[in-house]
Amino acid sequence: MTGSIAGIERFDSPGKGRGLRVTKPFKTGELLFSTPAHSYVLSLKERGCYCEFCFTRKEGLARCGKCKKAFYCNAKCQKGDWAMHKLECSALTAFGENWCPSEISRLVARILAKKKMQKERCASEKMLLIEEIQSHEEDVDNEKREMNESDIAGLHRFFTKHLELPNHKDLVTLFSQVSCNGFTIEDDELSHMGTAVYPDVALINHSCLPSVIVTYNGTSAEIRAVKNMQPGDEVLISYIDLLYPTDDRNNRLRESYYFSCDCQECKTKSKDKAKLKARKRSDPIEPEVISSMVRYARKTIREFRAFKQIKTPSELLEMCEQSLDEMGAVFDDANVYMLHMMYQAMGVCLYMEDPEGAIRYGEKILKHYCKLYPPYSLNVSSMYLKLGRLYMGMERYSVGVTALKKAMAIMEVAHGKNHSYLTELRKEITKK
């Protein structure tokens, strides 16, 4: 690890390589450790809403006087970010609308810049990032290899003014490392804010029965227990969305992280029956019919993801409704594939400023999320937040406050009672 963390030690985890475990008891909700990002970058979509340096969300942010694109809390934050922002500042002006590096290219540029800055001062951090974080470069398929090459081309095109780039082979390795070990920084409703690299957090192994959860406080990652832990217990997070059945989860793990999970839940598949619940009928549905509908659902999810960028919101909503009608002939509303498409439909309704439609889908989703997700799930708290804020916006204050309080109960464990999200949430609850 980059430094000594009280109560945590590194060890060789059988079959997993390196890992972390606790050396003292931790209670549910207790902070194991907090760590700053090695490097991070704010999403372009969030520019103007969050400070580029500290990720504080507020109105009246000050604009960079040179490029007019980056925003900061004050001169202190702008000065603190200049070593990183200068990688983009002049290029933003020079390329104009043609400035379009990927988020991972922007993050890699910052990693390289920081590596140069710390080369002599902090060689140990360099060693951890480059030599100990796995890249799985040899496992990358052709599609991901093409994406990496595109990202590398973007790095050459947009960042050579302030960077001396390593050779192509080293860049391929670095992009593979960041792709496999980067963390998405999300807000309280799980909206994407940016991407970061946390070498200490990257040491934590995956389980579908996690013992801790990672949340974000500004640009720092905080790791809190979601169950009581005893000395010797391994620190385990989930790398993926836990809603889905075992086969789906392991397909995702193999595609993104190049391993399969062998936790107790994956061995027993105890929750799969509930997650794949079929509609009750007088004549039982044949297993072949259910298998066929699962294939249809997976295909529809892939198609919806591809069509998001090219179809209109009304077309996307129609696609959701059609797939829900098709699947609903076989699947119960609690089936995770039904819930997935309901979630997409809710998102489209929010985009189309249709709060009633969003609430209609959200209420159906939340009913089953509470049963299918583990305790203290951010997916559940974010749904309570979305619904609570929609209710409040429609002046349904009583039900809105109830939903926000349920979100707060989860977030006090996941984020800590003193997190700024909780401070703001308490203000929302007391407004009416």
From TrEMBL:
Residues of the MYND-type domain: 51-89
Keywords annotated in UniProt: Coiled coil, Metal-binding, Methyltransferase, S-adenosyl-L-methionine, Transferase, Zinc, Zinc-finger
GO BP: any one term: methylation
Domain of life from the UniProt record: Eukaryota
Assigned GO CC terms: nucleus
Domain SET intervals: 6-240
Full protein name: [histone H3]-lysine(4) N-trimethyltransferase
Lineage, broadest ranks: Eukaryota, Metazoa, Chordata, Craniata, Vertebrata
